[in-house]
Design brief:
This protein is mainly alpha-helical. It is 74% helix and 0% strand. The N and C termini lie far apart (39 Å).
Length: 134
């Protein structure tokens, strides 16, 4: 791809929040049906989705460590999808500012989950932040 094509591709990309929503939806599909079809097209989306899947067991261990009072299999799949994405960005992706990863996770939870879930997700992410980012 030449420089002109690369610039054109970047101009046509959706914003990072929209791409993050696309990745979240694909992670959710993966949790529901491991053989889901990946229709992501942008570099951030593909790298993040595949990164989450590659590190999913480690990410689940981290989430389980801070999900006080909840077994991993009792966490609503939507919430788990949001947490997998956000914890991946906190632990493995230094290009994403910590505040952005946490804020976007909370925004996703406000749209796709419940008020109680938002508080739960915030608590888990605050604990991950303390261990991995300070």
């Amino acid at each position: 791809m030449n420089n002109n094509e690369q610039s054109k591709n970047k101009i046509n990309q959706p914003n990072r929040a929209k791409m993050r929503t696309n990745v979240f939806e694909h992670i959710y599909q993966y949790l529901i049906s491991k053989d889901s079809i990946v229709t992501l097209e942008y570099e951030y989306e593909l790298a993040t989705y595949h990164g989450v899947i590659q590190h999913i067991e480690t990410l689940k261990e981290i989430i389980a460590k801070y999900s006080v009072g909840f077994e991993l299999d009792r966490i609503y799949k939507v919430d788990l999808s949001i947490l997998l994405l956000a914890v991946y960005e906190l632990v493995y992706n230094d290009d994403i500012p910590t505040e952005v990863a946490i804020d976007q996770a909370l925004e996703l939870s406000k749209v796709y989950s419940t008020e109680k879930s938002t508080a739960f997700i915030n608590g888990v992410l605050a604990s991950v932040y303390k261990e991995y980012k300070k």
